[in-house]
Amino acid sequence: MLRPKRMHQTRHTFPSALEACFLVFLLCLLEYFVVGLMTEVDRFSGIGFSNTWGFVAVVGNGILFSALLHYKGQSYRDLFHASPNSVAATLAVVGLPTLMLVPGTLIAMAIVHSLVLVPFPMSDADQRMFENMMAGGFGTLLVVGLIGPVLEEMLFRGIFLRSFLNQYSRTKAIILSSLIFGAAHFNVYQLVVGFLVGLLLGWLYERTRSLWPCIGFHVAYNSLLIWLGDTISAGQLASWPLLALISILITVAGATMLRKTLAPRVGGT
Prior knowledge:
With 269 residues, the protein is mostly helical. It is built from 10 helices and no strands.
């Protein structure tokens, strides 16, 4: 199996769970500040906010990551891959089975989303928000399908979970990072789905100590969600019984492969 190395860095227990919540709040303030700066640019360039929010996220996260990595004495290279195994070796072992998790996870999260809608039906404003978020086009694919997953994995797994694993038990660290990941989406629908997906990504990171498998899964998941549009979120799975069954079988096979590959040794971690 792939064995993680211990993470040697200064201030390896920063942030704590409470500090992580503060950092999420700080990130929101940074992005709000960048939006304010972009307002003046928009007046002259004619670029609408819908086309600049990806830029805002990159700038806000870039400022935060630069400060955090400097404070922690950590490099971007180490942030992305802290395993003693090479990136190529890690992806060769877990890359395919990780991607095999995507279709079944998407179906499971569609069911969860439908269940959340029962006690918390969407308002018109919520529906418009998700429709705009999932609107097709290269811009949406770039931001939601690529930029968002990379930045989120860097923060929630690369910074938060990595720190939590140095100060909490493995289970507590994964649960806490997943809760913060879900809550950071600021709506109940993505909170529940984000928490559950975060548990999977947290386990994957804890086992591999690499962000690359997590990024691969996150990019594939979001991109497939964009490609399917609102059909999967509408719970119309009954229209595709055979495809749904095949997707679930693929995911079960991928999960089995990962479990065998990444299972902890007896008496070890």
